[in-house]
Amino acid sequence: xxxxxxxxxxxxxxxxxxxxxxxxxxxxxxxxxxxxxxxxxxxxxxxxxxxxxxxxxxxxxxxxxxxxxxxxxxxxxxxxxxxxxxxxxxxxxxxxxxxxxxxxxxxxxxxxxxxxxxxxxxxxxxxxxxxxxxxxxxxxxxxxxxxxxxxxxxxxxxxxxxxxxxxxxxxxxxxxxxxxxxxxxxxxxxxxxxxxxxxxxxxxxxxxxxxxxxxxxx
Length: 218
Ligand SMILES: [Zn+2]
Prior knowledge:
Layout: E1 4-8, H1 15-26, E2 30-32, H2 33-43, H3 46-56, H4 63-74, E3 83-86, H5 92-102, E4 108-113, H6 116-125, E5 127-129, E6 135-136, E7 156-157, H7 164-185, E8 191-195, H8 200-216
Parallel strand pairs: 1-3, 1-4, 2-3, 4-8
Antiparallel strand pairs: 5-6, 5-7
Bound molecules: zinc ion.
């Protein structure tokens, strides 16, 4: 029944949305380290303060700290039947630590693969409503051509962190960190790769199929 899934994919691949849907389908929590870091900072605990200080100086939060956060999260009741991990592990060191935390429990790994050029193209087309924050993506037609928000009629603008240079930087960081980690998981029989360049519903179907095929092979 339970599902232990790790989703890997570049920024802009729609991984978070897919992870949330798959987690709902299987009745397991989606564990996003990005959310957890934000929550920890907001909570104002000593750990949160430590994280805030690290992030405010532009440094990366250390592997030890991230692993400690995930370890505590995996111990909570709702994660005993399984989980969908989003954003962790990011490096081989973190992947090795996760193996330690799992203590032999099977892990399905799905990489959502999207060519860098496709991700840049998506970002170029993405617009956000100034008034209500609705995002319009290339999958909703051609947002660059849309003049007003369908929700509220507000003005559609490009997000400041959606510039092509920012996206290319993020992709460079992603590949540098994550390619070795993909190499770590790739030889396993529980590793699958899906085509993320398709429409979201087709990517979803591919992920569900990958999970099913791993479960069938077990
Ligand atoms: Zn709007």
